[in-house]
Amino acid sequence: MRIAFVKREKAGFRRMIAVRTTAMLLALASVGMIFWFYGADPVEVYREIFLGAFGTKTGVSEVIVKLIPLLLCGVGLSLVFKGQIWNIGAEGQLILGAIAATGVGLWVPLPSYLVIPAMFLSGFLAGALWALIPAVLRAKMNVNEVITTLLMNYVAIRLLYYLVYGPWRAKEQWGNMTWSGFAQTAILPDHATLQTIPGTRIHYITLIIALTSLIFVYLLMNRTSFGYELKVVGDNLMAARFAGINISRVILISMIISGGLAGIAGVGEIAGIQHRLRPGFSVGYGYTAIIIAWLGGLNPLAVLVSTVFFSGILVGGSYIQISFGMPVGVINMFNGIILLFLLASEVFLNYSIKLRR
Amino acid sequence: MEPLVRMVGIRKTFPGIVANDNVDFELMPGEIHALLGENGAGKTTLMNILYGIYRPDSGRIYVKGKEVSINSPADAIKLGIGMVHQNFLLIDSFTVAENVALGFAKKQIRPDIEVKRRIIELGERYGLKVDPDAYVWQLSAGEKQRVEIIKALYRESDVLILDEPTSVLTPIEVNELFSTLKKLKSEGKGIVFITHKLEEVFQVADRVTVMRKGRVVGVKRRDETSKEELARMMVGREILFRVEKKEGEKGPVILEVVDLKALNDKGVLALKGVSFKVHSGEIFGIAGVAGNGQRELIEVITGLRKAISGKVLINGIDMTNRSPREIGLLGTAHIPEERVKMGIMPGMDLAENLILKKYFLPPFCRKGILDLKSIRSNAEKLKTEYDIVAPSIRVKAKFLSGGNIQRLILARELSSDPKLVIAAHPTYGLDVGATEYIRRKLVEERDKGAAVLLVSEDLEEILSLSDTIAVMYQGEIMGIGRPDEFSMEEIGLMMAGSRRMKVIS
């Protein structure tokens, strides 16, 4: 008896939904097993996660807070991924956006009403620039962007550490004593921070930018000649060459947008939540966004749904640390296992499995 | 004597194509058996079935008299069958010894000692010199082939299948290979030699099975046949159907190629100074075995490959080394050789595929914004006009059959009234219906005044469609003339490069 993989002629929409849903359920069941090893009742844990995220007003508002950076990164990634350009560097691009925004917010002398727009702009540019380096290497020298974008995340983290431990470190003052304080910058002045919806941490300006970017990317993908070129590049590079499409241009532009949106996510985190630059302000949003874009099938509208799902896990997951005494690593594992199942399930989309004697 | 291998009534179909149709094949011990035929005749498919890569739809296989079922190459290797593919299946970053041992080492501890000893031993015995410690990426194509043969011999194969083994070799290496094969034969091994080169059959084979269009045309002993007979069997005498075609009205020169030189992907000179002219209202057919520079020629004309010298003039304008888009906008249609790899976007729908060359132009696009309505109506119109069979214009191109994919490409390329049509192997692998349709379309374009450059390995096609033919061999044109100036046999021999015709212009 052997197992044979037979290529499917057709992968219908229904089958895609069925396969993805099954993969998700199996992933949740596997994570449930781990909860069970921790001595917790998996059903109880999932209930807690769900209620923690969506059962209270605070929960829902926190879900929206997490949704902002995830959506910005996820939307940008679904764009580049559509062109089969594998930007794994949203995390680093987000950090660069945060660094630029902090720098502008703290030190660039501007009329106060211009500070926020300047922070967003500089964040976009910094993220875009960070993405542009691997994009140029890929477009001009065919350097594999998976490696470069991934490794540039570590460069970005080191740069962040250097700044907050070094030149940007704020002096602390207590009475008339000053000393070099914690590894963080000074707090941003009020005109460099974002307003929030009262009683929540939702910095609504970034939320509006995120939702706008979603619509923008959706239209760009489906209603413009650039989107058409991007799809051709992603679907068949040879055909793109055959049709005379400027492949380098497609790579550069899509990476600029993707990196820029990640940069804006970084601005939002600094100006809306942290109000200063410190290490570890991003809990891997740029990485989670990869899974989000994938789960959303690279369709910006579906990406919104998958973002809500992952924001819920992030928020609900923080409750289970308290209620069940599980380490924070469990939540990271969650993401990893879901991605693993999703990727593994792809084979069932393209092949049917038959048993042969 | 019992045959080593006997294949009876083998049939294998792929979606839309019958690759093998009731094929019989026999290999005796101590025999070199050539499997001769044009590309697409089904030779490699037949041998892939014997090697367990494909399973036949029907038919039986006997090895050494016993009926067997070969489900994988592992089964084939167990039965003593080894195959050397055209594209070598070696791991570049491993050494020769590691490649040979992979999966088949005979000892668990320090297998390398025994493997290296055997490699040297086999090398000396059969003239297959290769350093067991060299990395595969360091080897030339000829050396890699030797490694593949050693691999098969190390696994104790009695049956050795070689798929077009000389295509990657230098003349000296070819001679070395042939003496190795004769040595193997003298020890009672059976060798299947897949080829489309007539000379090789006479140099090395004892018997030859000729295939055409998935069927066996005949089996001959070398000493009871001639080149002329084999050429005729290979290309086929009868013409399946004739395309209705009036005498063309030649107009002005549309395409002029002057002393064109270009390299292939390996950096070797593939076009060695090609010159010709194609007029409006003329079908110019280039015959030749694939790999003799036709692909490079088309790529240079369409802007996909750089020429190193020479000129391409379209409508009198120098378009040498211009971009594919500029050349396309000048009214050039290109029906590419690799229709799935290059001609379509498999994951995009019919409507999107149909605008590939024009998506940036009105009415499909204004100021960068796509007009979905005209994209859809264009698709509906072309789908009807070119008879593309698909449930809707939203169906993805990958779900279309080969014939419908070609209709899609034709619809896209011909719908903008091209001045120059470049068609590479346009009917390769298609059924009779689609073939006829596509040939008729090409003649129609000619009658509308387009210049048509047709490259094909199918001689019937070239002869029945072309107003002028040229034969290419090793990057050069062997002769140009009207189809009635050459006999089938003459063309067949020119394709094999064995006779050089005077150039008629």
UniProtKB/TrEMBL annotation, chain A:
GO MF annotations, alphabetized: transmembrane transporter activity
InterPro entries with a match to the protein in the record: ABC_transp_permease
Main localisation: membrane
Stretch forming the signal peptide: none
Sequence intervals crossing the membrane: 21-39, 59-81, 88-108, 114-137, 149-168, 202-221, 242-265, 277-295, 302-322, 328-349
One Gene Ontology CC term in the entry: plasma membrane
Protein name as it appears in the record: ABC transporter permease
Automatic annotation (TrEMBL), chain B:
Record-linked CDD domains: ABC_Carb_Monos_I, ABC_Carb_Monos_II
Limits of the ABC transporter domain: 5-238, 255-499
Subcellular compartments: Cell membrane
Membrane topology field: Peripheral membrane protein
Gene Ontology CC terms, in alphabetical order: plasma membrane
Pfam families named among the record's database cross-references: ABC_tran (PF00005)
Claim: Transferase is one of the keywords in the record: no
Principal location listed in the UniProt entry: membrane
Any one GO MF annotation of this record: ATP binding
Keywords of the record: ATP-binding, Cell membrane, Membrane, Nucleotide-binding, Repeat, Translocase, Transport
PANTHER family: CARBOHYDRATE TRANSPORT ATP-BINDING PROTEIN MG119-RELATED, GALACTOFURANOSE TRANSPORTER ATP-BINDING PROTEIN YTFR
Protein's name according to its UniProt entry: ABC transporter ATP-binding protein
